[in-house]
Amino acid sequence: MDIATIIGIVSGAIVVAIAILLGGDFGTFVNVPSILIVVGGGFAATVIRFPLANVFSALALGGKVAFTHKKTSAKDMIGEIARLAEIVRKDGPLGLEGAEINEDLLKKGSQMVADGYDPDVIRGMLERERDLFLERLSEGARIYKSIGDAAPAFGMIGTLVGLVQMLSTMDDPSTIGPSMAVALLTTLYGAVIANLIALPIADKLGNKAVLEELNQTLALDGIMQLRDNKSPALIRELLVAYLPEKQRSQVLGEEAA
User: What is the 3-state composition of the chain as percent helix, strand, coil, each rounded to the nearest 5?
Assistant: First the structure.
């Protein structure tokens, strides 16, 4: 679970709630027409830009990445590949069938090595798997970015609707308050949804895509080394290039130990 996401959203919501409570009644800031304009309008604009099925998939993917998706470092990935290389050296490729592997791409590639697939077939299938996963992350980021763009825009639309309602009924003072509430609260809702939820998750999906491109390319190269029956020491030497300079000596030091 990603604690940073939870802390960020909860603390942001608490700050807004405290500011509201210090200034008056919380119920004043709840307005159903404003919610309908921002949420409904933002969703409508998003499904116009993207296929409906992709929107729902992106919403689920964003929640998974933001709240529950685990992070695997390149260093840990190299250690895992080196462990698999030890298994291959002791038991041969068939030893990979019983190995416990958590990373999906590494698990799939190891099974293909155990099954004796041709190297070109392994590389082609794993590259396709990697590229499709990265495309899903990228599309998810674009969809959340679209929601983040649409929410404030519909907040402004709601503001204009409220102002028109207010100006058209100036002769009835009892309607001015509700119309002004719609005018202002839609802008508030749009800004909160965009800046506290949609845009941060879009950035997190984008960052995840960068990290996964590195990790999955590393895993793919490692699988190919396993297929060629390279030694664990040589595999570490070849894959350490994926690490920052400061971590390389540490990994090579663990190998020497």
Answer: 85, 0, 15
